Amino acid sequence: MTIVHIVLFKFKTDVSDSHKEEFVTELRKLKDLSSVMSSKLVVGGPSITEPIERSQGFHYALLSYHKDSQALAEYQASAEHHRVTSKYLWPFKEDVIRFDFEISGDGDNHILPI
């Protein structure tokens, strides 16, 4: 089984672009956590969806893969994840959407080569 973890981030209107860029830089470092399967973590944004209204104001997205629900829980509980979210996200976020799902088997046939 493989867990796919997706998060969408929307920042308050007064958050600077430089802060958002720093957040993305720090978020990308989470790929080095052992709980992330084969360093499969990508962060993208800002949204290029046309028309932009379909993005519903969300600025960035994260996609990561974890070998099971325990690995995802370890990722969420890690000191590095806590540092990034508490310093760069929670005080500045307008909204966050998280969506996790399972892929049956080892997931190799479903994992994007990121």
UniProtKB/TrEMBL annotation:
The keyword Lyase applies. One of its GO terms (molecular function) is 2-methylcitrate dehydratase activity. Coiled coil: none annotated. It comes from the Eukaryota. Keywords: Lyase. Signal peptide: none annotated. Residues 3-101 form the Stress-response A/B barrel domain. Its EC number is 4.2.1.79. Homodimer. This is Putative stress responsive A B barrel domain protein. It comes from Rosellinia necatrix (White root-rot fungus).
